[in-house]
Amino acid sequence: MENYTDKETNKMKVVPQLLYKHKNVRKIMVDGLSCIVHKTIDTIDLNTDHFLSSHVLSVVLKGELKLEICYEDTRYSVTKNQLVFIPKGRYMITDIIPKNDEFEAVFFFFEDELLNQFSLSLKEQKVSKDNFTLMLKYTDKIRAFTENILNLYTETVQKELTKIKLLELLYLIYNSEQQQIFLQILNSLNYKKKRNLEELMLENFDKSLSIEDYACLTGRSVSTFKRDFQRQFNTSPKKWLIKKRLEKAENLLLSSNQPIQQISLEVGYENVSHFVSVFGKYYGVTPKQFLIQNRLIQNI
Q1: d(CA 75, CA 246)
Q2: Which among 33, 66, 85, 148 is least surrounded, fewest beta carbons within 10 Å?
Q3: Cα–Cα distance measured from residue 15 to residue 33, given in angstroms and rounded to the nearest whole number
Q4: Strand 91-97 to strand 64-69: parallel, antiparallel, or no bridges (unpaired)?
């Protein structure tokens, strides 16, 4: 086999960046990765993978949003007039289910800097550790705030207003009966533990994530991730990912009748041409040639 280093790993659908390009999303306010976006859709969208590069507070106005947040062993179903806060660095699978052919949601994305600014303005107080949840109530004040955002800002406004409005939303939640729940969520962000590296990689090597994404998901900087990875696996992350993904692809080729395109997706390559190229450089033959060779051997 040839030694081969992956030059371009296909990436997971990263949000909010992906939403900036989505045809069914209206960008209301945007300042870097802090933003307010409004999404409407009339068709079911199931089993979509996402990776969060910013914290997000999501409110569903119509329909239902089902979330499976990996590495936290949590699943949430967010229906009309419900809020959920999802921390950054999470890989999640979503189902969008319209009701009466309509799904509508508003997403408020917060960068770390903005949440840190907000947290520093608060008085230190004891935070309960009981009944932790990421779900929040869609109170009358938050509803009025959201409706004003949707009605007043019909076009993308200057970015300087984005963080002001996001801070306003944070204070509305804080100055409510949900203060303790909200403080629990904020407090949990400050105690992000390093996740088990081997367990995470073995469970998720076939996801189309970048090295930077994996580092974030394990609670490490990129340099620390690479150092810990080398110590754990005695090779670099890129070489290990190629080997594991292509081993799975080989197994699928030999044990299933799935088309090459489907196998490509299942091992983390959204671009089938790129998958064929990586496979060919690693094994010396294309996936199709690999199949033909093995069938000939079996018939001898």
Answers
A1: 30
A2: 148
A3: 9
A4: antiparallel
Cα separation, 273 vs 289, in Å, equals 15
Cα–Cα distance between 115 and 271 in angstroms, integer? Answer: 36
Q: At what angle are helices 140-152 and 162-174 packed, to 10 degrees?
A: 170
**Is the distance from CB of 136 to CB of 146 less than 8 angstroms?**
no
Written as six digits, the tokens of 260 are 């090459």
The dihedrals phi and psi of 247, each to the nearest 5 degrees, come to -65, -40
Sort strands 135-137 and 82-86 into parallel, antiparallel or unpaired. antiparallel
Tens digits of per-residue pLDDT, 238-272? 999 999 999 999 999 999 889 999 999 899 898 89
Among residues 178, 215, 166, the alpha carbon closest in space to that of 194 is found at: 215
From CA 116, how far away is CA 137, in angstroms rounded?
A: 23
Provide φ and ψ at 23, rounded to 5°.
-70, -25
Total length of the chain: 300
Local mean pLDDT, 10-residue blocks, the chain (300 residues): 44 78 89 93 86 91 88 78 88 86 95 91 81 91 96 80 96 94 88 69 86 77 92 95 96 91 91 94 93 70
